[in-house]
Design brief:
2 strands; mainly alpha; disordered N terminus
Length: 297
């Protein structure tokens, strides 16, 4: 084997390992083995659109977009600012979120329900007041409905623009319907079941949304001051820029965000597609479940 051919797998392994460790945390390998290798029925079949979307590198962009969009609900943002530790432990929060998504998407039905139960217990304890005196409770079904709708919309928008295999119309509706299963388990009442209902839900929340100082501070932290080494900041800036350009214009205006000036006009989306392809190359998906693992129990 030539030195160049042997060098490529080594680079792939190093880059993919570093990304996986950052996203999944120190227990990532053990969690991945448990999630994928434990026998038993799953909430989602191997060919489910939920698995297609959640297993793609476009989630890096969709996740950032979701955080920005969710922050525009003042009660959701107040809860995050007071209880999530996103400034003091942003990577811990990311790792907990990615483990939850992986467990509900790929894990056994029992493990998925246990993950939901843990989140619901946390939500039950998260209560407080905004600076203006409005009360919030993270277990409020209405507030959970906004968080869910903004997340599903963000993941789907990012996948359709940057995913390896964008969904057709029926697949998009099936994705929304699939995520409704997790939403109901978390306490959302009547979550959207197709893209038309998702659009209607997002529209219905618009009168409640506004850019608080906490939301704008969070956007600055997410987009411009991530706790990353210098070498990782240029690719992160590309992800952040694409999260911004996929937001609705009203949300960009409300948060006062725009792509960084270092990316010339017209190059943001091509750079995003190139970067997501690179991440996809560096982080190949987990092997598909065998019938014996998926159906055991």
């Amino acid at each position: 084997m030539s030195p160049l051919r042997s060098f490529a797998p080594d680079v792939r392994g190093r880059v993919g390992g570093a990304l996986f460790a950052r996203v999944a945390g120190p227990a990532g390998k053990e969690n991945r083995a448990r999630i994928h290798d434990t026998p038993g029925p799953r909430w989602f079949e191997a060919d489910s659109p939920v698995r297609t979307v959640h297993g793609d590198a476009s989630m890096f962009i969709g996740g950032l977009r979701a955080l920005l969009l969710q922050s525009l609900h003042p009660l959701a943002m107040a809860a995050v600012a007071a209880h999530s530790g996103y400034r003091g432990d942003p990577w811990g929060r990311l790792q907990r979120t990615s483990t939850f998504l992986a467990t509900t998407t790929y894990g056994t039905a029992d493990d998925a329900q246990a993950a939901v139960d843990r989140v619901r217990a946390v939500h039950e304890r998260v209560r407080g007041q905004t600076a203006s005196g409005e009360t919030y409770h993270a277990a409020d079904p209405h507030l959970l409905g906004w968080v869910h709708a903004a997340e599903v919309d963000s993941f789907l928008v990012a996948h359709q623009r940057y995913g390896a295999e964008p969904l057709d119309e029926a697949g998009g509706d099936a994705y929304v319907a699939g995520t409704a299963r997790v939403a109901r388990a978390l306490g959302v009442v009547d979550p959207p079941r197709d893209r038309q209902e998702l659009t209607a839900v997002l529209t219905a929340y618009r009168p409640e949304l506004r850019p608080t100082s906490q939301a704008r501070e969070a956007a600055r932290f997410i987009l411009r001051h991530p706790p990353l080494p210098l070498v990782a900041r240029p690719p992160y800036a590309v992800l952040a820029a694409n999260a911004v350009v996929t937001l609705p214009a009203w949300a960009r205006t409300a948060l006062g965000v725009r792509p960084p000036a270092l990316l010339p006009e017209g190059s943001v989306e091509p750079a995003g597609r190139l970067l997501t392809r690179t991440i996809r190359w560096a982080m190949p998906p987990a092997p598909p479940l065998t019938d014996s693992v998926a159906n055991a129990g």
